[in-house]
């Protein structure tokens, strides 16, 4: 046997070991994901009960402004916790490559109206004006895409805009440009400092990072949004001036 053959034989166990390590890593990812799902399921069940009963209490005390305020805070905090858990699971799924695209025929006008209705009260509670700008046409726009992912991206961006805006307006909508659908979200919020712009789509990024953080959140929303947009074949970007607001855009193919 030559020296070269001997070296090849020595390398074989190493290759086999690499395959084993890869399988172990995959198995570990599956265990982590299963653990997260089980834990969050156990948390989600009582949280949904809290939200449900709090809603009933709100109806019972609808004439008591103080009670309504406290109940609203309870429901809002519970919903934020649910949203945080959803984002953690979704980020884990994306990291493990388990997220797929499921396309269907989607009414984009209806989708944007749903998001407006869902987030309107959240904006009002902060004293903000929430504006939905539909395209300049009387006909609804239909495309073939993944409704859930488009909805989540747009909702993440509008929620972020509301969260980081203390006064003024949050405006969102879409336009049709040839084979692309262009979504936009504009706010009059705190803006993004120049030195942080390259980190915006990083996992766990926060525009107000530091010991004096004023805003909550996991910093997962924008990284998830970027991953979704790219899975759909689109692009996402933004312009911002520190202290003077931000505008996010993202595109998706307007397949019909």
Order of helices and strands: HHEHEEHEEHEE
CATH H-level superfamily title of the largest domain? Histidine kinase-like ATPase, C-terminal domain
Query: Helix fraction?
Result: 40-55%
Count of helical regions: 5
Specify the oligomeric state: single chain
Number of strands: 7
Structural domain count: 2
> What value does the Rg take, in angstroms?
23 Å
CATH architecture of the largest domain: 2-Layer Sandwich
Shape: globular
Placed side by side, the strands forming the largest sheet appear as: 2-4-5-7-6
Structural class: alpha+beta
Strand residues, percent: 15-25%
**Average pLDDT metric:** 83
Low-confidence stretches: 2-25, 210-214
Q: What CATH first level of the largest domain would be assigned?
A: Alpha Beta
Biggest pleated sheet? 5 strands, mixed
End-to-end C-alpha gap: 64 Å
**What is the CATH topology assignment of the largest domain?**
Heat Shock Protein 90
Description:
The chain is α+β, with helices and mostly antiparallel strands and 256 residues long. It has 2 domains: 3-95; 104-253, Heat Shock Protein 90 (2-Layer Sandwich), CATH 3.30.565.10. It is built from 5 helices and 7 strands, in the order ααβαββαββαββ. It has a 5-stranded mixed beta sheet with strand order 2-4-5-7-6. The chain has a two-stranded antiparallel ribbon with strand order 1-3. A hairpin with a 2-residue loop joins β4 (169-177) and β5 (180-187). α3 (108-125) runs parallel beside α4. The radius of gyration is 23 Å and the shape is globular. The N and C termini lie far apart (64 Å).
């Amino acid at each position: 046997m030559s020296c070269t053959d001997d070296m090849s034989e020595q390398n074989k166990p190493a290759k086999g070991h690499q395959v084993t390590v890869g399988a172990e890593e995959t198995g570990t990812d599956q265990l982590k994901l299963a653990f997260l799902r089980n834990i969050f399921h156990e948390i989600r069940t009582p949280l949904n009960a809290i939200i449900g009963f709090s809603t009933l209490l709100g109806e019972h005390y609808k004439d008591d402004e103080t009670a309504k305020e406290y109940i609203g805070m309870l429901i809002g905090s519970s919903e934020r916790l649910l949203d945080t858990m959803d984002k953690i699971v979704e980020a884990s799924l994306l990291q493990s490559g388990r997220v797929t695209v499921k396309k269907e025929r989607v009414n984009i006008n209806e989708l944007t109206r749903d998001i407006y209705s869902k987030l309107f009260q959240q904006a009002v509670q902060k004293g903000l004006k929430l504006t939905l700008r539909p395209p300049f046409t009387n006909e609804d726009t239909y495309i073939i895409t993944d409704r859930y992912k488009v909805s989540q991206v747009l909702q993440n961006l509008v929620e972020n805009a509301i969260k980081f805006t203390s006064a003024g307006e949050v405006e969102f909508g879409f336009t049709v440009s040839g084979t692309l659908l262009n979504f936009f979200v504009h706010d009059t919020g705190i803006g993004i400092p120049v030195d942080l712009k390259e980190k915006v789509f990083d996992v766990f990024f926060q525009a107000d990072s530091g010991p004096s953080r004023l805003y909550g959140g996991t910093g997962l929303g924008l990284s998830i949004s970027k991953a979704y947009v790219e899975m759909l074949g689109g692009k996402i970007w933004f312009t911002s001036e520190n202290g003077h607001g931000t505008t996010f855009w993202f595109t998706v193919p307007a397949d019909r």
